[in-house]
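Entry:
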Amino acid sequence: MNPDGLPDRADLERELRNLRRGGLPALRSLVPPGLRAVTLYAGYARGEDDLADGVERLVHAAAERLGTDDLIGRAAQRTFGLLPGHRGDPAAERRRAAAKVYGVSDERYRHSQERRVIEQLAGALLAEAREPGVRGPRPAAPGPRHDCPTGARPAPVPYTGLPGRAGSRPVTVHVSPIELLRDIDVLVSSENVHLEMSKSFRPTVSGALRRSAVVGSAPEGPDTDVLAEELAAWVRARPGVLPLPPGTVVPTGPGALAGRGVRRVYHAALAIPDGRGYRVDPQSIATAVAACFTRAREERAAGLRSICFPLLGAGRGGLDRRTSAEWLRWSIEDALTADPDWSVHIVTRYAEAASYFDAKVPEP
């Protein structure tokens, strides 16, 4: 054990070798002590209730840290069944897919490259936990759980679908990861004013949507980072447009989120770089909300009727959740007064934030 409470790399390597054999579903029955310690330290889980899900998120993040364009990163994804649709593959099939990355036989991969992949992944797990300014130890705060939508990767969802109000207007409040929502036409993401999405392994709305929208995850084929690529194309078509005025909204397609009934993702440019972090002017939330409704009205002919907002600016943007919620409430009320024909949703991972929208918070 290291002085910071994290396990030794050799211990993690041993646990990863066992996890390779059992696969991610094995975490439902037992989470090894080293992976438990790293996951809790890094803030990927709040306690025992969501520990298995947190380990999966952490392993995903560590593999992406190795680089999905790098042989080791790609082999790690296939070795542990991290690509969509391959989580439950047998160990032999996962090893075969990883061997194809290197163009070697299954047996040669087992005796050579696989060892290096596991060593590198163990190091990436520790690096992810120790990254300054992003995560750190968090107290366990287990809450009640609900079943996840069919086919979704389980995640902590204390409760969801609470009725609430933005001013005098009804809204639906979801306490859930945004990527688990279904059948909402437009999901809104918060970006910086340079339209640079969060890394897909970050625990942010932008990172979650980016990761969930990736298309083309066959072991032998390339992935398409749909949202980031569409934003980059939008910027290339407008030389000199950056940085954007705070509150500007840029639409993209949903990528793989279309499979969950999502039709558009609206990217609200809000966060202004400020030293090593970001700052968000809460008044920009009102600008962004108004721009989202304007864009949605323009696309109403395509059948858009529902839109979902996260707590804009309340992550790495630095705003506290109550301030973000208040500005969202006011802005949504103003938009619905002018055009009430919308189904409006709010999504947050934090149960107490539901009360900011006059949604009743059930007893734990």
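The two ends are 35 Å apart (CA to CA).
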